[in-house]
Write a structure and sequence with these properties.
The chain is α/β, with parallel strands linked by helices. The chain has two domains: 3-120, Rossmann fold, CATH 3.40.50; 164-302, Nitrogenase molybdenum iron protein domain (Rossmann fold, 3-Layer(aba) Sandwich). The protein is 40% helix and 14% strand. The strands form four sheets. Strands 8-7-11-12-13 form a five-stranded mixed sheet. The protein has a four-stranded parallel sheet with strand order 2-1-5-6, sandwiched between helices. α5 runs antiparallel to α6 (141-162) and α6 (141-162) runs parallel beside α13 (275-286). It is globular, with a radius of gyration of 20 Å.
Length: 310
Amino acid sequence: MRVISLLPAATEIMGALGLMDWLVGVSHECDYPPEANEKPRVTRCEIHGAGLPSAEVDGWVRETLAATGSLYTLDEPLVRRLEPAVILTQRLCDVCAVGYGTVAALAATLLGPPRVVNLEPSCLADIFGDIRRVAAALGVPERGEAVAASLVERVDAVRSRAAGAGYRPRCFLMEWIDPPFCSGHWGPELVELAGGADLLGRNGQDSTRVLWEGVVEAQPEVLVLACCGYPVERTLQDLPILQGYPGWLDLPAVRSGRVYAVNGSAYFSRPGPRVVDSLEILAEILHPELFAGFIPERGVVRVPAVAAVT
């Protein structure tokens, strides 16, 4: 079956199902599993890889969505040549992929027409449901059940071990630094399952901009920088901005050295199989006394209280 994936999470689902050979096209952001980088790219974004400051990225996103309703361009001639039987896309977030309406309209004009599978998760259960949905759409429901079951087993292992924690630290899972954004959708759920409490997150809802004064007022004991679409190295470039905010040095997380940068692009931003990796990462950050050595190393970086002098 010929499949096009328009979002990284869907491509990762295809990989978990063992169906990468069925993918004939992917989005410009699909980079995992590694085989995704060998597939034709059917989307592009004007600022992808431009290296703009985070504040300019935020401004461009808001202005472009207001003006055009979309951040991405779909290569329609290429999609037609690829002749997909199934297109995997989403309605969840206009910042994450080509708009669903654009995809559905194009699909209606293609030979077949191809089936458009919408992935729109707001929580872990929805993500596991999407894995089953993709597998069912591709005629291999048993693979979806097996993958989902293995992920649920890992979640239950974290939940069970975290239940032994003596306390639940206040955690701010930060989705953007300039301007500050809290986490949404499955983010606060991950914090809770890992044995913490995210006082600023929006469980099951869109992430949103927050006032830095609200962060200071919440007094997080653990601060996790999981910037949307950023690897650790790019997040670390914004540290001087974060460390320049008023009250930074007074935060309990900063005073105790419990500020961490994680790979938001690979894990926290993607509602696919590796979201369970995100949970395991949070569990070890929040409760190293319970999880150290229990979870594989995934490149978490402890952040200094102040920017290094060069």
